[in-house]
Amino acid sequence: MSLSRDARTILAVDLDYFYAQCEEVRKPEIKDKPVVICVFSGRTEDSGAVSTSNYVARRLGVKSGIPIILAKRILSKNIDAVFLPMDRDYYDAVSERIMEILRSHSQKMEQMSVDEAYLDVTEYTRGDYSSAEKIASTIKRRILEAEHFTCSVGIGPNKLVAKMAVDAKKPDGLTMILPDQVRSFLDPLPVGKLFGVGPKTEEKLGAMGIKIVKDLANCDEARLSSIFGKNLGPQLKLSAQGIDDDIVQEREQEQLSRIVTLKQDARAFNFEYELAPLCRDISERLAAKKLLCKSVGIIAITTDLKTKNRARTLDAPTSSEAKFMEVGSELFNSFFDENEGIGVRRAGIRVSNLIKAADSQMKNPTLAEFFG
DNA sequence: AATACCGGCGAGT
DNA sequence: TCATACTCGCCGGTATT
User: Fold this and answer.
1) What is the pLDDT of residues A113-164, one digit of tens each?
2) What residues of A are annotated to the active site?
């Protein structure tokens, strides 16, 4: 019996309805009530959107992304419904502790977000999926014992299949897709369920007569390339075939952003007061991570909810709040010059092209440092 | 021709 | 009807070298 050189066993772990479950753990008495985590924008009493909700609320139709006001309308008959403002610092702390538990189960881990991670457990299982299932059960038990938290786990031969598997049963699921089950698992799914296929792509595929994953897996690659491009086209077909060579590996952060909803739509750059805290926050976050950025950009969501970006590459890497403010102001000013009469609803700052602060000093010393 | 940059878009949490 | 705050990645166009 031999283990094929490239056969892997990957776990995808997803913490169930994360923000809402964090609140349930903190306040057990709300556990059986609809729980809605809100991002209040501050425009009016209940302006803003639902970030996430627990399954009690979801079953009643309150899902991520809907307006808070609409959620309140839907739950108006449920007097016990709980609406809570998002408390990111608390959720981040819970996340960190759980991620530590995950990390203890594999050296090869990739945290995807506050509530998701991939683990490559190949070297522990050596291709034995029943042993992977034991690892998954152990992880679920340990998270439950340590944090009173449920999670879902998907097991598969690569990240894509593990991700599709974890989505197949939530919450508190454990789904294992053996290598020889991959095609039969994926084939009947509607293409929209395939990871990476959102509404727009689904719509285009539908117009091509491609409704289920099997159709996509069998589709002519050249035809896909002509519509989705030479990278995305072939990628779609591979995904549909359950093929994914992407390795499990922590990635460097590439960008960082902060955005706010303005009290009123702005028609000229007059919100320096609102922009300053964003610049300060970005500056602090960069400093905490010992990072500098080489580009600074702005994000403007206009009155008609379209997203506009402007960015500039800097002469020298920085983490300076003042620099972000200066460049941000200039970019917003030119944005308003180019778009006379356009209103901005939400405004943000984004920094990208991140580099380690220490590295940059070595490679690009300032004159003072060079002669220092 | 190759690379860098920019801005729009799409997807996912 | 009302429509958050992030992060990542691709695409095509254009500028730079």
Assistant:
1) 999 999 999 999 998 999 999 999 999 999 999 999 999 999 999 999 999 9
2) 116
CA A243, A249, A259, A55 dihedral sign is: positive
In chain B, which nucleotides are within 7 Å of a protein Cβ? 4-13
Torsion-angle region of residue A118: left (phi > 0), alpha (psi -120 to 50) or beta? Answer: beta
Classify A143 as helix, strand or coil.
helix
Domains of chain A in start order, with CATH, are 10-17+90-182 (3.30.70.270), 19-86 (3.40.1170.60), 191-240 (1.10.150.20), 255-360 (3.30.1490.100)
pTM here is 0.93
- State the nucleotide closest to A42 in CA–C1' terms: C4
Nearest nt (C1') to A68 (CA)? C2
Q: Which residue's CA is nearest to the C1' of nucleotide B4?
A: A313
